[in-house]
Specification:
alpha/beta, Rossmann fold, seven-stranded parallel beta sheet
Amino acid sequence: MTTRQKCSYGPLIPVKAYDLTGRTAFVTGAASGIGRASAVLLAEAGATVHCADRDREGLHETATLIKDQGGTAPLHPLDITDRTLLREAVRSCERLDVMGAIAGIMHSSPVLETRDEDLDRVLDVNFKGVLYACQEGALLMLDRGTRGSIVTMASGAVDTGGPGLLCYGAAKAAVVQLTKTLATELGQHGIRVNAVAPGWIRTPMTDRHDEGQQAQTEALMARVSPLGRVGEADDIAHAVLHLASDASSFTTGQILRPNGGVAMPW
């Protein structure tokens, strides 16, 4: 019988569907922001979480948070654009149930001022790095016969245009296409592939301005949301957990949009 927990605002919740005990996850971008929040939450759900990032200090901080709650977090300090290092790190897992391809960078420049090196760097990290993680994760799942889940990180930028976001938005749009295509190719093996497209989330990546300008930006983003607030990294981590868990066992090739209602595409 499925274990259920009473919920004060609605029907009973099937807690067991979110239990990742005995499973292994690999999370890129785990040193901060959404990556860290996702790694910590997956560990809280019972998974052993391999954490990858080029920020060694941030990785150790994430590992401490996981270990303090009794979890296990092998660390992989690496740049996800290095396919060889990423492959070695993923292959160090005896099995893989969840690949969280979350690492990314932000860049802003007007279209007419965008340089080749700007576009190349963003595509290398935000698209190719995600592609490499998906490829290596899928190959290990196939080798081990695991019916796993791959979760990529897109962005609300794929739904709306924004000044300065050509490089970032184009890379995230490519992630959406990667997600849908890979879902059609891996579904027959029981491997699900989905993306999360967050709205404005308060993370180190979005904290790019001085305190006053940052407060104004967040106030503006909160006003355009029907919920009247900006998002937190934990809001996105819960979306990642949902897609990683059996609660979404009939979901693949989808784009989950925790964006506060700012965009409501068909």
